[in-house]
Each structure stands twice: as structure tokens, then as C-alpha cells.
């Protein structure tokens, strides 16, 4: 077991959606030192910054990433591959040189192949094919980092673990931006439609694809448990076991905002992968992780946070 209270810890992406929740939880453990530089202070595309970031660090949790939905991935596939691969490669090499004890690489469901005959996804299925085309370069950049970590484990005995996270949602997400994920994007869209009296909300695709969503607080808990208790070479899924369709998701969000207009599906836009769901049994077995938050409760919490954030007289972001 790695006792985090005794460690000097670096969290990359600490000012992002997942990173803020990780920091809040790890601060409660009172580590010896905790660093979370932002991109302006420490752009990981510069190898010199990577070397400075890991000086006198015991544990790295690499959560920094260029992320976004289907639209963002289709618009800039080169950037998604280049930035994610380069940040991870340079940071891991710097960590090796600095003698870091453990490196936690945050991976993604987008690493899984487009064509998998049987769901839910198991870690053994990861190499059966190329990822879904709309986010293939992003998925491959993360797969590259999985191979990189396993290679460094083999050659240098560096303790690198790789966690595969399913789609995240929750308070603090990026709403109404081009890089927003599906839940945040839909929340923002229905909220504005309700407020402005728009008679129709147009959503991408057919609405038939399914996704598994993991509440961000549960994700942070799983990452911390893995950092403390998991030292294996093989990647590990972190999911919720709750799979729902995008159409049902849109209906739920519309209902919570009291939106009664039409929901139209633009089938000229891509659906992405038809289904995504995780087998997270290894996480339960290896480090006792099970997601606690029911999806309806997590969605209600997320919408409540969003409503507080955009309240007309709100001058500062709410704490979470």
C-alpha cells in the first residue's frame, strides 16, 4: 500500500474538471506535499517543464489531457493525438529520470476498439482493433501511453499503472463549450432553450447509442484507491455499470428543466460508437472500487450545480 499522507504528489490537469475533484480529496489525506500547476505555469508540451514538475516528487497522477466531444475530435484530430501523446511521453520520461516511485496514467474508454463482439468491455479486449473513428486519434494517443508505461515498467522497473475511465460527468464540468462532453452539452442546450422559449432542440445523431457514465466524485475515489493499492501492469476499467441511451439522457435532462418543446435528432451527424459499457470487476477485486452514485442522483446534482453557476446575480463560482 502506498500511504498518500507520506507522499509528495504531482497532479497534472489539477485545474480541470477531474483534477479539481482529485485535489480536494487528496488534500483531505494531508500529503507531505501536493502540487497542481496550471498550463500557463507548466505547459507539459515543453520537456523542461516536465522535468521541473517532477523534481522531488514521489507520485504522479497524470490527469492533464486535451479532451472534447465528437465535434472537437473531428475538427482537430492531429492536435488531439499530438498533445496527449507528447505530454504523457515527456512527463513519464522526466518521472523516470527523477526517480518517481509511482506514475498513474489516466486513460479513457476511447482506447477500446470500434468493433467488439461482446459487451461490456473487458480489459482483455483492448487490442482487438482500432478505436471508433470519430475519436480514434485521441484513443490511440492514450493507447500509446499505455504501451509506453508498460515498456518503462519492463525496462526500468518503474511502477506505472493505467486506468481506463468511462465517460465522466458531474459538478464543475465544462458547459456550453465546443470541448464539452455530451451531458454537459445537453444540459446547457436545454437550459438555454427553456430560458429563451425555443420551440425545438436539435441533437446530433439518432439518439440510439448508449453510454456508461461515471460521476466525477466516484472517478476521483477510484483513482485514489488505485494509486494506493494497485501496482499491476495491466490496465484497469473504472466505470459505473449504468448504461443509458443518448435519447433517454436527452429526455431526462429536458424533464429536469421543464422543457416541453420538440427534441429533433439530426441524423446527418455521427452517432459515434453504438454502445459503450464497462466490466469493472477487476477494479473491485484489485482495490475494492465500486461506483456509489446512482445516475439519476448524479444528474440531479450536476444540474443543480449548473443552475447555481448561471444564476443571474451569481458573482463567483460555487464551491464543490
Automatic annotation (TrEMBL):
Keyword Membrane: no
Entry EC number(s): 1.1.1.271
InterPro entries, per database record: Epimerase_deHydtase, GDP_fucose/colitose_synth, NAD(P)-bd_dom_sf
Gene Ontology MF annotations: GDP-L-fucose synthase activity; isomerase activity; NADP+ binding
Binding of NADP(+), residues: 13-19, 142, 181
Residues binding substrate: 189, 204, 211, 271
SUPFAM superfamilies linked to this entry: NAD(P)-binding Rossmann-fold domains (SSF51735)
Residue ranges that the Swiss-Prot or TrEMBL entry lists as coiled coil: none
Listed pathway(s): Nucleotide-sugar biosynthesis; GDP-L-fucose biosynthesis via de novo pathway; GDP-L-fucose from GDP-alpha-D-mannose: step 2/2
Site (Important for catalytic activity): 108, 110
Keywords assigned by UniProt, alphabetized: Isomerase, Multifunctional enzyme, NADP, Oxidoreductase
GO BP terms in the entry: 'de novo' GDP-L-fucose biosynthetic process
Keyword Transmembrane helix tagged: no
Active site, renumbered: 138
Residue ranges of domain NAD-dependent epimerase/dehydratase in the record: 9-239
Catalysis: reaction(s): GDP-beta-L-fucose + NADP(+) = GDP-4-dehydro-alpha-D-rhamnose + NADPH + H(+)
Family under the similarity heading: Belongs to the NAD(P)-dependent epimerase/dehydratase family. Fucose synthase subfamily.
Reported function: Catalyzes the two-step NADP-dependent conversion of GDP-4-dehydro-6-deoxy-D-mannose to GDP-fucose, involving an epimerase and a reductase reaction.
Name the UniProt record assigns to this protein: GDP-L-fucose synthase
Gene: fcl
Amino acid at each position: 500500500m502506498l500511504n498518500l499522507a507520506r507522499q509528495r504528489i504531482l497532479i497534472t490537469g489539477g485545474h480541470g474538471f477531474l483534477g479539481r475533484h482529485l485535489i480536494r480529496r487528496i488534500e483531505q489525506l494531508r500529503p507531505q506535499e501536493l502540487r497542481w500547476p496550471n498550463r500557463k505555469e507548466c505547459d507539459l508540451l515543453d520537456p523542461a517543464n516536465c522535468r521541473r514538475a517532477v523534481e522531488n516528487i514521489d507520485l504522479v497522477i497524470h490527469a492533464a489531457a486535451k479532451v472534447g466531444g465528437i465535434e472537437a475530435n473531428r475538427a482537430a484530430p492531429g492536435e488531439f493525438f499530438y498533445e496527449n501523446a507528447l505530454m504523457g511521453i515527456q512527463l513519464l520520461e522526466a518521472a523516470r529520470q527523477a526517480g518517481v516511485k509511482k506514475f498513474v496514467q489516466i486513460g479513457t474508454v476511447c482506447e477500446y476498439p470500434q468493433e467488439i463482439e461482446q459487451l461490456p468491455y473487458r480489459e482483455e479486449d483492448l487490442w482487438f482493433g482500432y478505436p471508433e473513428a470519430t475519436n480514434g486519434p485521441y484513443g490511440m494517443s492514450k493507447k500509446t501511453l499505455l504501451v509506453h508505461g508498460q515498456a518503462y515498467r519492463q525496462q526500468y522497473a518503474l511502477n506505472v499503472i493505467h486506468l481506463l475511465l468511462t465517460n465522466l460527468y458531474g459538478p464543475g464540468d465544462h458547459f456550453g463549450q465546443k470541448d464539452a462532453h455530451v451531458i454537459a452539452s445537453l444540459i446547457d442546450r436545454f437550459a438555454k432553450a427553456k430560458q429563451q422559449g425555443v420551440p425545438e432542440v436539435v441533437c446530433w445523431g439518432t439518439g440510439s447509442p448508449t453510454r456508461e457514465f461515471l460521476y466525477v466524485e466516484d472517478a476521483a475515489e477510484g483513482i485514489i484507491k488505485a494509486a494506493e493499492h494497485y501496482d499491476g501492469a495491466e490496465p484497469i476499467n473504472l466505470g459505473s455499470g449504468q448504461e443509458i441511451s443518448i435519447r433517454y439522457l436527452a429526455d431526462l435532462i429536458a424533464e429536469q428543466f421543464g422543457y416541453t418543446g420538440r427534441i429533433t435528432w439530426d441524423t446527418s451527424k455521427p452517432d459515434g460508437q453504438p454502445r459503450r459499457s464497462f466490466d469493472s470487476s477487476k477494479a473491485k477485486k484489485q482495490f475494492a472500487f465500486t461506483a456509489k452514485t446512482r445516475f439519476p442522483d448524479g444528474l440531479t446534482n450536476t444540474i443543480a450545480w449548473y443552475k447555481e453557476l448561471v444564476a443571474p446575480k451569481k458573482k463567483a463560482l460555487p464551491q464543490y
